[in-house]
Amino acid sequence: MDLLAHLEAYVATVDETSFSRAADRLGIAQPLLSRRIKSLEARFGGLLFDRSRRQVATTELGMLLLPYARDVLDRAQRLDQAARSAQRAQVRAVGVPADCAPAELARVIRAGAERGITLGVRELPPQEREARLADGSLAFALLRVPPEHAAYRVPLGLASAPPPDAGRPAHAIPGGARGRPVHLEDLRPRRHGPATGARTAPLPILTLAEDDVPYARDRLGRAAARSGLPEQLVRPAGPAATALAETLAGRAVLLCDEPFARRHGADWAPLADAALHRGYEVRGTPRQQSGDVPQWLSAALAAAAGASTGARAARRPGSADAASRLAARG
């Protein structure tokens, strides 16, 4: 027996002095309400209502048990309210890339608070975000996907030491100082001068942990090979602080997004090959459907990762640009 449902039928009938009005109040059919009343009477061993009159009257047993029934229903309601409050107060862990803009992460947290949701931001590498989402340690996560299939895209480029002054060497990225998109072949060794014929060695291309995902590594390696760059030129950067120090010292260039480069005082030029950019999807735990991820949360997390806060980058099958198709095929 669903005791609460049966007690609700009993109390509603007392209040309404009518089986039909009580059924309407509870949104159930009258025969169902009558069955619930009879089940209670069988349980309590006596009639709760006198049905011999035109108007339903409560018996002495019904009046005796009424305050106890109301107390049970009141306690059950308070229990439900406490459970809902606890659920709203529960911290929902959200996995995001490392080195997101703090101001954007603050907006994510505030947006949740405005909706009664306590969000706990966890900066994690891509593979760990996916693993923790799968085992339920995270409620939501911003996951890496190929850019041509992504809901949100973050343009990547090459960060380098700030533009040179009169006493410093030429810019590490040809054309980068002028903000033009760069191609990896622009980094090939260049002749130092027509007289000597010597070539300037290319700078290493460092990659952050956020780009240490299989498809991204493969695409970057293939793109570098097609551009005639040595295989060992592209390598993981290790800690971000070390990579930035090498970059700002002019000893390397760093693959990253523009907000990250600008926050740390580096120059930045976008990569022309869109297949090398970052792609993201916001997903919930496996128990949820993709539609259960609130749009406000998806947009806020995408902005924190450096993606546009405008329309989703929806792309029809076959609509990827030529560079993306070439990189995908290798």
Structure write-up:
The chain has helices at 3-16, 19-26, 30-44, 60-89, 102-114, 126-134, 214-226, 240-248, 258-263, 295-304, 322-329, and strands spanning 49-50, 57-58, 91-96, 118-123, 140-145, 152-154, 156-160, 190-191, 199-200, 205-207, 234-236, 253-257, 267-270, 278-284. It is an alpha/beta fold. The strands form 4 sheets. The chain has a 5-stranded mixed sheet with strand order 4-3-5-14-6. Strands 11-10-12-7-13 form a 5-stranded mixed sheet, with helices on both faces. Helix 1 (3-16) crosses helix 3, helix 2 (19-26) crosses helix 3 (30-44) and helix 5 (102-114) packs antiparallel against helix 10 (295-304). It starts with a helix and ends with a helix. Residues 309-330 have low confidence and may be disordered.
Secondary-structure map:
Layout: H1 3-16, H2 19-26, H3 30-44, E1 49-50, E2 57-58, H4 60-89, E3 91-96, H5 102-114, E4 118-123, H6 126-134, E5 140-145, E6 152-154, E7 156-160, E8 190-191, E9 199-200, E10 205-207, H7 214-226, E11 234-236, H8 240-248, E12 253-257, H9 258-263, E13 267-270, E14 278-284, H10 295-304, H11 322-329
Parallel strand pairs: 3-4, 3-5, 10-11, 10-12
Antiparallel strand pairs: 1-2, 5-14, 6-14, 7-12, 7-13, 8-9
Helix pairs in contact: 1-2, 1-3, 1-4, 2-3, 5-10
Descriptive keywords:
330 residues; alpha/beta; five-stranded mixed sheet; 14 strands; 17% strand; disordered C terminus
